[in-house]
Amino acid sequence: MVRLIESIRILNGRISHLNFHENRCNESRTKLWNLTKAINLRKKMIIPRNYQDGLVKCRIVYSQEIEEITFQKYQIRSINKIKIIQSDTISYPFKFEERKELDTLFANKDDSDEIMIVKNNLVTDAYYYNYVFQKGTQYFTPNQPLLEGVMRSSLILNNKIIKKDIFVFEIQEFDAIHLINAMTPLGKIVVKPNQINT
Questions:
Q1: Using CA atoms, how far apart are residues 58 and 74, in angstroms rounded to an integer?
Q2: Which CATH architecture has domain 82-197?
Q3: pTM of the full structure
Q4: Helix 18-33 and helix 150-157: axis angle, to 10°?
Q5: Beta carbons of 17 and 7 less than 8 angstroms apart
Q6: What is the 3-state secondary structure (H, E, C) of 35-98?
Q7: Cα(187)–Cα(88) distance, integer angstroms
Q8: Pairing of strands 138-142, 162-164
Q9: Looking at domain 4-73, which of 1.10.3720.10, 3.30.390.10, 3.20.20.100, 3.30.470.10 is its CATH number?
Q10: pLDDT in tens, the chain (198 residues)
């Protein structure tokens, strides 16, 4: 049976975006296995005392039920160089534990720190992140990501970012590019267009 994961941000004992994680978890279970009884992640997440300070990643592995919950200290990555990778067939609609297609693309990053996956000439996602493109005071995120991340969903809901088709040839028109995921808020990893390589 396939397994899925949720990576949940905990800062000084406070859980971030739990409703978004619960919704994605239960929507995935419904779509994949036609399960309608929801999992309550809050009841399952008992944070050990030694993980109640600083930035912590809670990793939940599940299929029809939760199978594993682990905690680890987390440090935001440093990204200096991103390689554009083209794939018109890539699909990653659920947050699967096994990501063979993504792994294959990431293996071709050469000396870059991350990849920018382009599908049918449109920017989608990185290997670990969703993208946000900044132009002045406006923020845009690709309209068709491979996976709709919880940080992205929260920023859209709060009108902080706008969904937009972003073609690969438009990348250089933006002032900055942010990488976000459940563990990485907007503004923590920021690169310039000249750090994106084909």
A1: 9
A2: Alpha-Beta Barrel (3.20)
A3: 0.96
A4: 120
A5: no
A6: CCCCCCHHHHCCCCHHHCCCEEEEEEEECCCEEEEEEEECCCCCCCCEEEEECCCCCCCCCECC
A7: 29
A8: parallel
A9: 3.30.470.10
A10: 899 999 999 999 999 999 999 999 999 999 999 999 999 999 999 999 999 999 999 999 999 999 999 999 999 999 999 999 999 999 999 999 999 999 999 999 999 999 999 999 999 999 999 999 999 999 999 999 999 999 999 999 999 999 999 999 999 999 999 999 999 999 999 999 999 987
Domain boundaries, given as residue ranges, for the chain: 4-73, 82-197
* Residue 25 token pair: 């978890």
Query: CB within 8 A of 24, min separation 6: which ones?
Result: 6, 95, 148, 150
Amino acid letter, residue 194: N
